[in-house]
Amino acid sequence: MYRWTDHTINPTGEARVTLRRVLKYLGLPDDVISDGILAVSELVANADEHACGPYEVRLRSAAGRHICEIHDGDPLLPVDLYGAALPPAEAAMVEVESGPLTERGRGLHIVNELARGKWGYHVTDRGTKAAWVVLAEASATRKPEAARPDGRAEGSRRPPG
């Protein structure tokens, strides 16, 4: 769906634009699109900052879900991989250690909240890694209204008169 290299100027912004276009085409509701774009943006930014390229964003449907994967060229999984999924009390202890005014390190917490815990990383067949996030159950996809020859949506009634 979208590829970039270490020399790409704004991969996060470009990934957002591309993902928005594809999710709208699939007919996903606006709130699902917004949350999905934010979660994927965080994962793209992490890949771009912490891993080596080449990079790729892929979208696939599996088991009734739309799943976005962010592939990079680094085989190492992030340290403290699922720290973002800590219960609130434990997360508060981590925040005290890092400081409440710390500007960095909250991206995976955001991803975890938006994805309701349905995200992670896996090592690919090529020995590199991919972050993944479930954007929506396929049932969340809106069915496009079928247009009739007279321009009205299928199932709509002609106004009386």
Summarize the structure in words.
α1 packs antiparallel against α2 and α2 packs antiparallel against α4. With 161 residues, the protein is an alpha+beta fold. 23% of the residues are buried. It has four helices and five strands, in the order βααββααββ. The C terminus is likely disordered. The chain has a single domain, classed as Histidine kinase-like ATPase, C-terminal domain (Heat Shock Protein 90, 2-Layer Sandwich).
Top keywords for this entry?
single chain; 161 residues; alpha+beta; Heat Shock Protein 90; globular; disordered C terminus
In short:
The chain is an alpha+beta fold and 161 residues long. The chain is 34% helix and 20% strand. Helix 1 (11-25) packs antiparallel against helix 2 and helix 2 packs antiparallel against helix 4 (107-114).
What share of the residues does DSSP label as strand, in percent?
15-25%
The total count of strands amounts to 5
Average pLDDT works out at: 79
Could you tell me how far the N terminus lies from the C terminus, measured between alpha carbons in angstroms? Answer: 49 Å
At the fourth CATH level, what is the homologous superfamily? Histidine kinase-like ATPase, C-terminal domain
In the sheet with the most strands, the strands line up as: 1-2-3-5-4
SSE string, helices as H and strands as E: EHHEEHHEE
Q: State the CATH architecture.
A: 2-Layer Sandwich
